Amino acid sequence: MSDAATGEISQEGMESLVDDFSSDRQAYHVPWGKAMMWIFLVSDTFIFSCFLVGYLHARVTTTQPWPPQSEIFALSFGGDPIPLILIAIMTFVLITSSGTMAMAVNYGYRGDKVKTFWLICVTAVFGATFVGMQMFEWSKLIAEGVRPWTNPFGATQFGSVFFMVTGFHGLHVTGGVIYLIWVALRVRRGHYDNKGFEIVEIVGLYWHFVDLVWVFIFAFFYLL
Amino acid sequence: MAYVPLADQDQEMEMHHPHTWVEKYVFSQDHKVIGVQYGGLAVFTGIIGLALSLLFRLQLGFPESVDFVDPNFYYQAVTMHGMIMVVYFLTALFLGGFGNYMIPLMLGARDMVFPFLNMMSVWTFLISVVILMASFFVSGGPTGAGWTLYPPQTTMAGTPGHDAGIILMLVSLAVFVVAFTMGGLNYVVTILQYRCRGMTLMRMPLTVWGVFVATVLGLFAFPALLVACIMMMFDTLLGTSFFMPAVIEAGSPLDYEGGSPILFQHLFWFFGHPEVYIVALPAFGLVSDVLSVHARKNIFGYRMMVWAIIAIGGLSFIVWAHHMYVSGMNPYFGFFFATTTLIIAVPTALKVYNWIFTLWEGDIRLNSPMYFAIGFIFTFIHGGLTGLFLGNVVIDLPLSDTYFVVAHFHLVMGVSPILVLFAAIYHWFPKISGRMFNEKLAKVHFWLTFLGAYSVFLPLHYLGFLGVPRRYYALGNTDFIPLSAQDLNSTVTVAALIVAASQILFFVNIIGSLKWGKKADPNPWGAASLEWQTPDTPPVHGNWGDRLPTVYRWAYDYSVPGAAEDYIPQTVPENEVLAASNDNFETNKNPSPAAI
Ligand code: HEM
Ligand SMILES: [Cu+2]
């Protein structure tokens, strides 16, 4: 920093770290929208953490046994039931969508609008598939008699947590799909030709976050 | 003054210029209008909160002769009073009101980074207020579970408003969290990314630091409240048992099983304790600026003040269970939380010392904002000291849930921030409205408020020592409580009525001065910070005309030896200060290590 306006800048140790961070005008070299998305995601992390902590707490305090997830979340295709198969596919779909999203970001920065558009669309389709499979899973559990308030397989909290946490995450995915489609359409219309394609990265951040959260839900709720 | 031409400014924002009256004053995207809207709405809810407190104070003071307050209404009034004051009044006024108004002006920005989102924030806040107020009109009335909304009480049939009232409360809080998040993201990004040239973080006025850290706290603490609200909503509407253990109500078991009321308390206080600092930190910041300006001295230990704000913010996330000493915890947890609670008192005390050292040998101007600011130091020390008592587990056990706690948090979180609010409103009124207020009336208002508030809350400590429990509709004939406690209660009620009535002076002064006040000087207190250097008073849309200001120094250059005037605005470069005076001198460009 050589700006006369900024006064003396220390070059040493902690002091210089603080000075760097507190440099004038902006603390990070990122666009406003991206900074805002990052901070929002940290805040959202706290929401999901609270949900998961609440779930863990409910699981240790409940008076009835926790149902065996691998049996409940098993599907049989003609033969023996395969434990957790649907969740495995859902997780795979969502992680794949993160890959296509990353490619979209890449093509966005290269200015390849057509590829960016299609890759975002593919991401959105994967997201919608995920939500569709989640709906299937919900209806299966509901058909088996699991409700937020009762659970034939054991602790009632199982049903409560399941519908609440996967529902909240599912809403995030649904919102993300809408957001993706919106951005994709604007990319195609040339809305960002002059502004730059940071928005693709911003929606990408959100999308990766939703995936990451799913990994935690998967680990804590289905595997633990 | 040196300016940077528009062309040299990166990321200059596209201003949305209003064309119609509606765009200018109703659906405005201007941070100043939004700030005033937020503030006005918050004050409106605050008045309702105040009115409710008078109703239940009447019941407490004169239980025999007041018959329009029945037990149910008493609990509803106490609950709504608490929640309104903490969330809808103080949080909204400090962050939505002052945060919005001050951040761009103090940082030399044209507006918030995303003005449209900012506008959405205030309208969402309005929705949450409407939902909250709607609960007064539904069958069963608003919830009466206490502002902490502890289950299982909230959901049980004995509690007023256990059906519709509590749902509206939870929905309203959830909507508030959304509103806050939209505004809060804006404040944080604006502060980090949209400062004018030369405005380093370590040159920002402490107001901005306070609002900044408070907003970050809010973004991390409100999620816990949101989750608690959602889970409780599930419990009440869907019959889940997150928070509800197996309970027997009126002889028959309810449909709940295996939930944990303690979980709610953890979630609530994980929000609740940072929340008290969400209110306190902006107040700390505002009062620091008011003290420094009217003492004509730089704030003592600026860097230390900043680090104290940050330290308090960080620590406030690991003290929450001091509200739960009596709820039943592993004793080692009590030990841990007592330790962290006492540690947080260290940076807090540092700030108090620094305020006093700022006054020390200052050229104090006893303007009315200064009265309120000094009054704040008194009430805050007082409330902070009782906090130290309560932070120790063994001392807290007998005092918890007595009026001692009520006295503690009202002094520290009620009276103190409100005194700062008055200080800040009087201090910035000339800038915001372009008019001067009536100084004499403001001073009368101060004495009535300050002395009145003390006579309300000081006796409550004594009641607490006697063991008078909080949240009781009437004391009745309780053996361990002497009859004289009732006399004290009546006195407190009379004092409360007087304090409330004296607020009329404030409104008369503010509203009257808008119309009849004499035109204000652009910088009547001779303040150095940026918001006083705007080309127009009140500042117009876009704040800075066609050129953004450039900042050359921190916001606290007061009484610099050798300077022509006793303050140097942040926009004055070094060579112009020298030109303005003949002597050689050293300006205090940055807070020197000696000041720490
Ligand atoms: C000096 C530092 C402080 C300490 C050690 C401290 C300690 C405590 C403790 C231990 C309690 C729980 C009492 C009980 O329920 O038994 C408490 C309650 C409370 N404190 Fe503080 N406090 C401090 C500062 C503050 C500040 C700065 C604020 C707000 C600006 C505040 C607001 C509150 C509120 C609102 C409650 C009561 C909540 C309720 O039960 O309804 N405190 N404090
Ligand atoms: Cu606390």
Strand order of the largest sheet of chain B: 1-2
What is the typical, i.e. mean, pLDDT of chain B?
Answer: 91
Total strand segments of chain B: 2
What is the CATH first-level class name of the largest domain in chain A? Mainly Alpha
Number of domains of chain A: 2
Strand content of chain B: under 5%
Low-pLDDT ranges of chain B: 1-11, 581-596
Describe the largest sheet of chain B. Answer: 2 strands, antiparallel
Task: Briefly note the CATH topology name of the largest domain in chain A.
Answer: Four Helix Bundle (Hemerythrin (Met), subunit A)
Total count of helical runs of at least 4 residues of chain B? 15
Spatial sequence of strands, sheet with the most strands of chain A:
1-2
Query: Main interface pair?
Result: A-B, 48 and 53 residues
Look at the structure and give the mean pLDDT of chain A.
89
* Helix percentage of chain A: over 70%
Supply the CATH architecture of the largest domain in chain A. Up-down Bundle
Topology pattern of chain A, helix = H, strand = E:
HHHEEHHHH
- Low-pLDDT runs of 5+ residues of chain A are 1-7
- Tell me which oligomeric state these chains represent: heterodimer
- Give the DSSP E fraction of chain A (strand runs of 2 or more residues): under 5%
Describe the structure in your own words:
The complex is a heterodimer of chains A (about 220) and B (about 600). Chain A has about 220 residues and is an all-alpha fold. Chain A has 2 domains: about 30 residues, no CATH class; about 190 residues, Up-down Bundle (Four Helix Bundle (Hemerythrin (Met), subunit A)), CATH 1.20.120. Helices cover about 70% and strands about 5% of the residues of chain A. Chain A contains 7 helices and 2 strands, in the order H-H-H-E-E-H-H-H-H. Chain A has a two-stranded antiparallel ribbon with strand order 1-2. In chain A, strand 1 and strand 2 form a beta hairpin. Chain B has about 600 residues and is mainly alpha-helical. Among the domains of chain B are: about 180 residues, no CATH class; about 60 residues, no CATH class. Helix content of chain B is about 60%, strand content about 0%. Chain B contains 15 helices and 2 strands. Chain B has a two-stranded antiparallel ribbon with strand order 1-2. In chain B, strand 1 and strand 2 form a beta hairpin. In chain B, helix 4 runs antiparallel to helix 5. The radius of gyration of chain B is 25 Å and the shape is globular. The N terminus and C terminus of chain B are likely disordered. At the A-B interface, helix 1, helix 2 and helix 6 of A face helix 5, helix 6 and helix 7 of B. Copper (II) ion binds next to helix 7 of chain B.
